[in-house]
Amino acid sequence: MDQSSDGETVLLPLVAPAPVVVAAGIGKQFGAVRALDGADLTVVPGEIVALAGENGSGKSTLARILAGAVRPDTGRLTVGGRPARFGSPRDALRAGIAMVTQELTCVPAMSVAENVVLPRFTRPAALARRRDAVAAATPHLRRVGLDLDPLTPFSALRQGDRELVEVAKAIATRPRVLILDEATTRLPNPERLFTIVTALADEGVATVFITHRLREIRRLAHRAVVLRDGRLVAELGRDELDDERISSAMVGRSLRDLYAKPKVRVGRPALVVSSLVNDRTPAPVDLTVHAGEVVGLAGLVGAGRSELLESIAGVRPREQGFVTVAGTEVESGSPRSAMRAGIGFVPEDRRAQGLHLDAGIADNLAIVWLSTFGRTDRHLRDLRANRAVNRFKIRCRDIEAPVSHLSGGNQQKVLLAKAVARHPRILLLDEPTRGVDVGAKHEIYTFIGELVTGGIGVLIASSDLLELIGLCDRVLVLHDGAVAGELPRSRATEERIALLSAGGKVT
Amino acid sequence: MTVHHTDAPRSHQASDPGENNRLPRPTGKQLARLRQAIASYAGVGSVLLLLVVVLRVTQPYFGTMSNLLLVLETNAVLLVLAVGMTFVLLTGGVDLSVGGTVVLTTMLFGRLVTDAGLSPWLAVPVVVVLGTALGLLVNGGLIAGLGLNFFVVTIGTSYVFTNLGKLLTDRGNTISLYGDETIRRMGEASVFGVPAQVLVALGVFLVGTLVLRYTGYGRMIYAVGGNPEAARLAGINVSAVRASVYAITAAMSAVAGVMLSIRLSAASPSAAVGIELTVAAAVLLGGTSFMGGVGTMLGTLLGTLFLGVLDNGLGSAGISPFWEGVATGVVLVLAVLADLLRKRRSRTTTT
Ligand SMILES: Nc1ncnc2c1ncn2[C@@H]1O[C@H](COP(=O)(O)OP(=O)(O)O)[C@@H](O)[C@H]1O
Ligand SMILES: [Mg+2]
C-alpha cells in the first residue's frame, strides 16, 4: 500500500515520550457478559491511536473506564505517570481525559453554548451568565466548524451538528487525551474532525479514536489496537495498517468464512411495502423482499430504520401505505395481525422490547403460543423450549433460569427462536448482532442462511456495514426517513453506503 | 430550518468585518428569541390576562390596590412553596411531602414559642434549619443516596411528617399563638402598606430566580433534569444536586410553616393539608415540565398568580369554591395539552 498518497508523513520522535495513559489488565463484567477480559492500552502524548474491534468487543467499555464513567473490576490505570482511580467522570476530566460518547450526551433543552461549557459548571456558587457561556463556547464552536447562534437550543440541531457540539464540548475542557467513540459514524463530513484531531496531535494532545471503519484507520491513525472479546489481540504500527490485517484481527478469521452466505434462488415477493409513511419516515417508502432473499437496511442512527421495521411489524402505527405478506394485508398498528400474516420480528432493544428478563427461556418462548382461551400444556412448553435450545445452540443452565443471566448472544438466540416459532414467511431483524460475541455472531449468520434456504425472506437493519455487505443480496440506505438509494450486492461497499447514509450521492 | 442563520442579520456585520472574537449580536435573533420566550408563557399568561380583564369588568372591587395586596398576601405561602417545588420539578422529581413538612414545622414552631418559651425570632431559624435538615437527610438521602423512587418516598414521608406534626398538638387541637405579642406584631408588620409576608414571598421568588438563572447550581439543576447521564459525564455530582433540591423544598416548607403560623396567629395541624398538589399545579401551570429540565421561575409566579386571582375573583363573585377547584384542574390539563400540541407542531415543521 502506498502510504504517502493517503495521508501526511508522520514523524514520530526517536525517543518515545513518557506515556500519558497506561491501562493494564482491565477487566469488567456486566451480569453474565464479560465486556473486558484483561485489556491493555498505552497512549503517548500527541499520538492518534485507533481502537478497532467488532461490535461488542468492548471498545466503548474500555473508553468509558478511561473517562471515569464506568469503574473497572480489575486492572490498573496510570495517568501522567501516577496511578489513577476514577470515581466519576469528574475525576477523569480533572486528570485531562475527555470523551465523546457513542450515544449523544447533551442536554436537549439547553442552548448549544451551555452544553459546550457544561463541564465547567462544577462549582454551585459560581456565577453562570449566558453571556459568559456564549463567549467561552464560541471559539470551540468555530474550531469544529459550527457557524450558528450559540443560544440555539441543542434540540433544534441536525444530527451531524449535534455531534460537532459534542466534540466542541470535549475539546473545551482542554484535555490531554481525547477519546472519540465512533464519532465519525454520525458525521456527514468527517474530514473536519480529522483536521482537528491532527491539529490537536501537533499540540501534544493524544486521541483515542474508536471506529470499525478501516478507511478511517488508514487515513488518520499512527497505530491501531484491536480488541476482540474484551482482550487486546493485535497492535499494528503505521506501516502495518492494511485492511486485511486489521479485519482479520477484528474477526479472528477471514471475513469470507464469517459471512457464510449460501446461494439461494430468489423466489416470489414475500413482503411488499408500498408508500409507507409513519411519524419518522415522512417520505413514502416502497420496498419488496422476495422469498429466499436477504435485504439490508442501512442508515445512521435516527435515519428511521427501526421505526420502519416497527411499522411493518405492526408495532408502530402507519400514517399511510400498505404492507402485504404473500398477498395478505397487514393491519396498521396491530402486531397480532402482522404475526398472523407471517411476519417475525426481532426488535432492536432486546431487553426493553423483546424479552421478559425475569422469566426463563421456556416462558419467554411460550408467550408466542398463548391464546386467550387456550390451555397451557407444560409438557409441550418444555418440549418446544428444549428443541429451541438445541436448534439455536443456546448456552444456558436450564430452560427455567431467568434470561437476564444469559449473555447477549444467547439472549439474541432466544429472541430469534421466538420470532421463528410460528414459521413466518418474512423475518425482520433489527441490529441482530449488536453486543453479540463473534462466535454467537457466526451462529446467527449460519442460521439466517438456513432460513433463506428454506424460502424465508429476511429484512435486516444494521449499523455494522461489513455485516450488511457480507450477508445481503441488496442494501437499502435510509437517510432522514427516506430511501436514499439501493445497492445490489455487487455494488455494496462501505464507502458507498456511508456516502448515501450521510445524504450524499453515489455515482 | 432555522439552524444556520445566514440570512438577514448579516447586513450589520458587513460594517465591521474585522470582528472575529466578539460575537455578532444581530437584532433579528434577539427578536426571535424574545418571541420564543413570550410563546413559552403564552398559555398561562393569556388565561391570566383574560381572567383579570373579565374580573376587572364584572367586579368593580377587583381592581383596587387593597384587593391586589390581598391576593398577594393570601398566596404568599403558596408562592414560597412553589418556588421550592420548581427546583424539584426541574430535576425531574416531585416532592409530595411539602404539606406534611408544613404541618410538622408549624406545630414545631408553635411548641417552641408556647411551651419552650422561645422568642419567635429565635424559633424561626431553629425551625427552618431543622426542616431543611429533615428534607436533606430523609427525602434527599432516600431518593438521591439510596436511589429510591421519589413518588414512593415523598408519599411515605408525607404521612410521617403530617402525623408527627399532629403528635405535637394537644390531641389534634390548634395551638393558639395569639397571646404572643411578638407574633401578633410580626403578623401586622408591613412596609409602605405592603404586608411583610408579601415581601418575604417576593424576596424568596427573587432569590430563586437569580439562583436558577445566574449560578452554576442553577445550570446543574437544568442539566440534571434535562439529561442526567450527560450531567454525570460533564462531571456534575448528580446525586448531590438531587439531594439538594429536597433540602430546598423542605426549607421553603419550613418558611411557609412559620408564615402560616404568624398569619393565623396559631399553629394548626390542618391548615396546609393537601397543599402539595396545589403547589405542583401552580408550577406546572407556569410551564415547568413534569419530565424535568424545562421551566422558569417567572412561569411559576404566573401560575401562582393565576390560582390566586381565580380564587379571589370567584370568591368575591359568590361562586362556590368547588367550582374553583374544577376550573383549576381543567386549566391545568388544558395547559399541558396546549404544550403538547405546540411541540407536535414545531416537530413537524422542523424535521
Ligand atoms: N451497561 C451494560 N450493561 C450490560 N452489558 C453491557 C453494558 N455495557 C456494555 N455491555 C456489554 O458488554 C459488551 C461490550 O460492549 P461495548 O463495550 O459497548 O462494545 P463495543 O463498543 O466494542 O461495541 C457487549 O456484549 C455489551 O452488550
Ligand atoms: Mg461501542
What average pLDDT do the residues of chain B reach?
85
Spatial strand arrangement across the major sheet of chain B? 1-4
Helical fraction of chain A equals 25-40%
Present as ligands are: adenosine-5'-diphosphate, magnesium ion
Dominant shape of chain B: globular
- Given as residue ranges, the uncertain stretches of chain B (5+ residues, pLDDT < 50) are 1-25
| Mean pLDDT metric of chain A | 87
| Morphology call of chain A | globular
Order of strands across the widest beta sheet of chain A?
Answer: 6-7-8-3-9-10
CATH superfamily of the largest domain in chain A: P-loop containing nucleotide triphosphate hydrolases
Name the CATH architecture of the largest domain in chain A. Answer: 3-Layer(aba) Sandwich
**Number of separate structural domains of chain A:** 3
Q: How much helical structure, as a percent, in the residues of chain B?
A: over 70%
Biggest sheet character of chain A: 6 strands, mixed
> What proportion strand of chain B?
under 5%
Give the N-terminus to C-terminus distance of chain B in angstroms. Answer: 8 Å
- Unreliable runs of chain A, pLDDT <50, ≥5 residues? 1-8
Tally of alpha and pi helices of chain B: 14
Keywords (chain B): Cell membrane, Membrane, Transmembrane, Transmembrane helix
Membrane topology (chain B): Multi-pass membrane protein
Protein name (chain B): Sugar ABC transporter permease
Subcellular location (chain B): Cell membrane
What does this protein look like?
The complex is a heterodimer of chains A (507) and B (351). Chain A has 507 residues and is an alpha/beta fold. Chain A has helices spanning 59-66, 89-94, 112-116, 130-143, 159-172, 191-202, 214-220, 243-251, 255-258, 305-312, 335-341, 350-354, 361-366, 378-391, 408-420, 438-453, 465-471, 494-501, and strands at residues 21-30, 33-43, 48-52, 74-79, 82-83, 97-100, 177-181, 206-210, 223-228, 231-236, 269-277, 285-290, 294-298, 320-325, 328-329, 343-346, 426-430, 457-461, 474-479, 482-488. In chain A, the strands form four sheets. Chain A has a six-stranded mixed β-sheet with strand order 6-7-8-3-9-10, with helices on both faces. In chain A, helix 4 (130-143) packs across helix 5 (159-172). Residues 1-8 of chain A have low confidence and may be disordered. Chain B is 71% helix and 2% strand. In chain B, the strands form two sheets. A two-stranded antiparallel sheet of chain B has the order 1-4. Chain B has a two-stranded antiparallel ribbon with strand order 2-3. The longest helix of chain B has 32 residues, at 27-58. Chain B contains 14 helices and four strands. Chains A and B meet through helix 2 and helix 4 of A and helix 9 and helix 10 of B. Bound molecules: adenosine-5'-diphosphate and magnesium ion.
